[in-house]
Structure formats: structure tokens, C-alpha cells
Amino acid sequence: MTASTDARTAPSSTDAREPPGPNGLPVIGNLHRYVRDPLSFIERCAREYGDVVYTNVGPMESYMVSHPSHIERILVSESDRFRNAELGQGRLEPLFGNGLVVSEGEHWRRQRIRMQPAFRPDRIAAYAEIMRAEAIRVTDRWSPGETIRLDDEFRRLSLRILVRSLFGTDLDDREDEILEAFRTTTDRFEGANTWLPGWLPTPANRRFERGRQRLDEIVYELIDRRRDDAASRDDLLSALLTAEDDCGERMSDRAIRDEVVTLLAAGHDTTALALTYAVHLLGTRPSAAERLAAELESVLDGEAPTMADLDRLPYTEAAVSEALRYYPPTHATAREPVEDVTVDGYRLPKGATVFLPQWVVHRDERWWDDPETYHPERWLDDSDRPEYAYFPFGGGPRHCIGHRFALVEARIVLATIASRWRLEPTDETLSVRPAITLRPTEPVEAVVRERTR
Ligand code: HEM
Fold it and tell me: Does ligand 1 lie within 6 Å of residue 159's CB atom?
């Protein structure tokens, strides 16, 4: 498959064709096929129709682009020809408001610049202490023979790390409520619920509304409590409270709420999933788990890692990278062309939704040997695969603001666990389904075993 050759200055060639794709039904297109088994549907589209497909799912025009060089164009080199997909915003706006994941233009740029300092390497190094302490606290609680729910444990742990690091406080007494509120609000983004209008009084919409109200209550309380001493503190929440624009105006409570809810949602669930999948996959590949344990033994000698240790733990890093390839928590990124764009000779019309599916690209045999195998070793050799054959954190101006945070957290937590315990899956099979993030369909459990040295 060749990369598109249309000139940057020619917005769309007049003879650009409609991409191939599966025929759909009137109005709903291929929605019924997508809802039945979304991941198989997109895999089949790529296999049968190629790198640019008219997927035609649901009421809007939808396309899928799955060649790394096209993905690079859309996310990076020609990112100004695309905006966040309307679909994504329409779906996410009731929860995230105008927070960083949703906002566009000048507001997005200003907020991104305001928040960026909280994600600089020196700050991440300070958060690493919190990550280490919280990981030790969790692993201290476990006892041999106990069965734990990995997805729950990691969601709680990631939330606690995020709140302490970015907001300089703890919400331990509200953790259950926050996790429950996110669980219920995100139901709305699954399967057929995704396509139903928010005003319909469906059970998922009612649960969404209750969850959103609960989150609002907790976050506005947090903002209120911080207001008085924000000026003397240096965490991200205080920075948002004290930031002024060019006219000396402060952000409204509503705007701060939108950023806090966005960070809570975007930051805890994704990292928790990365950890859940990494631990599960290692449990199903004893040779990888042993190699990881050997690395930790030789470098850490039974201690939990500090930030300074991470550079000496290449296999730990490979185990995390490979989990993010195998089960990318963000299974697809979406964009919308702001003008007609030609990719590989095919027209992507202005206003359509264009999906860039990590799930498909990360398993494409053109870039990955034996893609269905969890194989951390592949990350230890240099490879000449294209850069955007792997993009768990997106790319370009809107790449994940928390990617460094997430990678440090995942490595510290994984190393803390694996240097002390061996987690044995109760069931080696794991199936996943796409919602806002890629979720396990069933609880993911493991038995805690003492690690024999
Ligand atoms: C393994 C963990 C994570 C994964 C896989 C992940 C993935 C992603 C991806 C793919 C995007 C780009 C979406 C797009 O281009 O449309 C993104 C954006 C974002 N992520 Fe993450 N993320 C992770 C962790 C985090 C953490 C820890 C935080 C915050 C502490 C965070 C906050 C955000 C925010 C605010 C955005 C929007 C950035 C913008 O549009 O300017 N993420 N993430």
C-alpha cells in the first residue's frame, strides 16, 4: 500500500474516489454489524478493503484509516486539516464539558499550555515518589492465596495516584463514589447506547445523569476547599484556580470542573487498564514473567523501584510497551476533516468521522511478527517499522498530555508488584470490548502467589 502523494497545497484532488467498504442498510449503514462485534468488524474492514475504508456505521459518514503513514499525516503533519471528531465531542461533551479532551482552537491551546508544566519531567519525578508509596501500600495489603480483582485494584490505585499527584490532596473517602460515578457514566458510551440521543429516558441515560451529578458535587467541593490556599500551593488544581488570561480574568468554576473531570477520567481508567492487561498477559506467559522477575531481582534486589531505577529496567519497559500494543486502552482515535482531504487517492469528506484504529494497526502483520502473541522481547531489538505502527498515546499536537505520567506509573507499579508477588490469572482467556476505552468483558482476577527467589 503506498502513501498518499497528493500535494499539501491541493486540498483534495478532483478525481479522488470513494473508498471501498461493506455495503450497509439504509439509514443505519453497518451499525448492526458493528454493534454485534465491533473489533471483528473493524478487523474485517481492514482485511477486506485495505487502508482506507468507508465503514458507514450509524447515522454519520464514517471512515477508517489504518496505514501508519496516513495516520501520521492526519495526526501530525496535516493536523490543521482535521479537528476532533464531532461524534467524539457530541458523545463526550455532557461529561467532560469543554475540558482538554473536547475543546478546540484558542481555548484548547491556552488550556494545554496552562496544564503542560504539571507534566514536565521534573514534576513526574516528584509524582514517582507518590506512585511508589501507593504501589507499596497496595501490595502490602495482599496475602498469599488471596484472589484479587486486577481491574478494580488498579482503577483505585491509579485514581489515588492521580488525585494526590495532580490535585495535591486525597479523596480516599470519596473513592467508591467516584469510581461508581465513572462506571455508570461510561456505560452510555457502549454498544447501541452510543448512538441513542442523550435526552431519551433510557436506563443508561438516567444512570449517566446521576453519575454526572455525583461527579459534579465532588469536584465542586474539591474546588471550593482549595480556593483559599491555592496561591500558596504548586499542584495542577491550584494552578488552574490561580491562572489568569491576558485580561486578568480567572477561569470560571465550570471551566475548572471540566478540566478536573477530564483529567480524572482520561488519567485513571487508561492507566489502570494498561496495568490490568500487563499483569494478566505476564500471567499467561510464564517465560516473560520470569525474565521480568530476574531483571527486577538483579536491579532492585527486592526493593520497590524509584524513578532513578527505571532506566535500568528495560524489560519492565518492554512488558508495558507490549501490553499497550496488545490491548491499547484507547482502541481508536477519531478525527474530522475540516475540508475535503485526499488520502491514498480516496476522498475523506469534510465533516465525516475518520477512525484511526490502534486496535487494527497494532496487530497488522506488515509491521508486527506474530502480532497475536504477547512478546515483550520484540521491544528490545531495534526495528525499522514505521513510527505510527504504534501510537497508544495518539500523536501530533493533541497527543496524550499524560503519556509520561502513565508510563512512569505503569513501570513503577508493575515493578513493585512483580518484585514481590507472582499474580496467577484465574482464567487465562480474556475478552475485551470497546467503550470509551477498551474494557475487559468480565472481571479480571488473579491469585496472589509468593515469588520464589
Ligand atoms: C496508558 C495510559 C493512557 C493512554 C493509553 C492514553 C491515551 C490517550 C490518547 C490516545 C490520547 C489522544 C486522543 C486524541 O488524539 O484524540 C490522549 C489524550 C489525552 N490524555 Fe491520555 N492516555 C493515558 C493516560 C493519561 C493520563 C495519565 C492522563 C492525565 C493524567 C491523560 C490525559 C489526557 C488528556 C487530558 C488528553 C487530551 C489531550 C489534548 O487533546 O490536548 N492520559 N490520551
Answer: no
- How far is residue 143's CA from residue 122's CA, in Å, rounded to a whole number? 35
Listed in sequence order, the residues at least 6 apart from 75 whose beta carbon sits closer than 8 Å to its beta carbon are: 333, 335, 356, 388, 391, 394, 395, 396, 398, 399
Ligand 1 pocket check for 356: Cβ under 6 Å: no
Binding site membership of 358 for ligand 1 (Cβ less than 6 Å):
no
* Cell numbers 501508519: residue: 68
Is the sign of the CA dihedral 203, 206, 210, 211 positive or negative? positive
Candidate from 400, 403, 437, 438 with most ligand 1 atoms within 8 A of CB, to mutate: 400
Residue 320 corresponds to which amino acid? V
DSSP, residue by residue, 143-181? -TT-EEEHHHHHHHHHHHHHHHHHHSS--GGGHHHHHHH
Q: Which three cell numbers stand for residue 356?
A: 484511526
Task: Judge whether 2 and 386 are in contact, CB under 8 Å.
Answer: no
Please give the distance, rounded to the nearest whole angstrom, from the Cα atom of residue 115 to the centre of ligand 1. Answer: 13
Domain ranges of the chain: 31-450
Which of these, 353, 334, 350, 332, lies nearest to 342 by C-alpha position? Answer: 350
pLDDT tens, position by position, 45-103: 999 999 999 998 877 789 999 999 999 999 999 999 999 886 544 567 888 899 999 99
Is 119 in contact with 401 (CB distance < 8 Å)? yes
Is any ligand 1 atom within 6 A of the Cβ of residue 394? yes
Task: List, for residues 14-54, the tens digit of each pLDDT value.
Answer: 678 999 999 877 777 777 788 788 999 999 999 999 999 99
Closest to 359 measured CA to CA, from 329, 399, 318: 329
Going from the Cα of 212 to the center of ligand 1, the distance in angstroms, rounded, reads 20
Residues 65/355, Cβ–Cβ less than 8 Å: yes
Determine if ligand 1 sits within 6 Å of the CB of residue 111: no
54: phi then psi, degrees, rounded to nearest 5? -90, 100
Give the N- to C-terminal CA distance of the chain in Å, as an integer. Answer: 50
Q: Quick one: which of 127, 179, 187 has its CA closest to 153? A: 179
CATH of domain 31-450: 1.10.630.10
Count Cβ neighbours within 10 Å for each residue of 405-433 and write b for 16 or more, e otherwise.
Answer: bbbbbbbbbbbbbbbbbbbbbeeeebebe
